[in-house]
């Protein structure tokens, strides 16, 4: 059986990424795919980009990777851009949109937020119609029709849901989880690049990491939006949540 670790939404949090990579290595998983948002909110986007380039077999772009690689008038974005430098910015701007392949006879399609856009946000509690649309194809993918299993990041909420024989999953977030304050990723298990229908599994993994070290690194860098970042790391509560 083949196994693929699917990580996403690292957001410049180096201690969280290091903890996840150590866990993946301990499980002896050699294939790692990254579903984007390597950079921003945390302080170590430059180191994270370099580490992802070294360790991940495939990397696609998230919404942060897209807009931070473009000119901006926002000071917080400019701060992250200054950390990255021109070569990393170019790398982010050239990342592909998605990944698709067969595994144990199932068409697997992976993207950052939706098969249509890295900016289309669909939460696990939204309408069934919207969630089922995540199985759809688009001009971004070679194969037509719906996927048998679709996986994404973006919303920082890990889950697995089934719809009439199709499986939808979210990896959660490595560096900015918004359910519990532990890093999250997914593992796919089956026969890679096989059209024969055989056993297939999806596992969600939670990894504790040194949150206070991540906060210390951000504080030492005098990072913009520090208070909101600290709140999210310690409480897993989204900074935009009201009440």
From TrEMBL:
Residues 3-189 form the Calcineurin-like phosphoesterase domain. InterPro entries: Ap4A_hydrolase, Calcineurin-like_PHP_lpxH, Metallo-depent_PP-like, Pesterase_MJ0912. One of its GO terms (cellular component) is cytoplasm. Pfam families: Metallophos_2 (PF12850). Belongs to the metallophosphoesterase superfamily. YfcE family. Coiled coil: none annotated. SUPFAM superfamilies: Metallo-dependent phosphatases (SSF56300). This is Protein phosphatase. One of its GO terms (molecular function) is phosphatase activity.
């Amino acid at each position: 059986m083949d196994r693929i670790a699917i990580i996403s939404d690292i957001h410049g949090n180096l201690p969280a990424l290091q903890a996840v990579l150590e866990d993946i290595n301990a499980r002896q998983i050699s294939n790692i795919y990254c579903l984007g948002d390597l950079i921003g909110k945390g302080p170590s986007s430059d180191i994270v980009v370099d580490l992802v380039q070294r360790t991940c077999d495939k990397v696609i772009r998230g919404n942060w990777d897209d807009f931070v690689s473009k000119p901006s008038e926002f000071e917080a974005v400019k701060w992250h851009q200054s950390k990255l430098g021109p070569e990393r910015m170019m790398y982010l701007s050239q990342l592909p949109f998605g990944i698709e392949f067969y595994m144990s006879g199932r068409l697997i399609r992976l993207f950052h937020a939706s098969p249509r856009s890295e900016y289309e946000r669909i939460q696990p509690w939204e309408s069934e119609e919207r969630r089922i649309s995540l199985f759809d194809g688009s001009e971004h993918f070679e194969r037509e029709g719906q996927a048998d299993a679709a996986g994404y990041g973006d919303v920082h909420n890990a889950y697995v849901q089934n719809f009439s024989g199709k499986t939808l999953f979210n990896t959660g977030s490595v560096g900015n989880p918004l359910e519990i304050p532990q890093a999250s990723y997914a593992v796919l298990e089956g026969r890679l690049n096989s059209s024969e229908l055989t056993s297939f599994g999806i596992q969600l993994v939670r990894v504790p990491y040194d949150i206070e070290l991540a906060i210390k690194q951000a504080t030492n860098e005098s990072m913009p939006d520090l208070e909101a970042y600290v709140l999210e790391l310690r409480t897993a509560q989204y900074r935009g949540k009201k009440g």
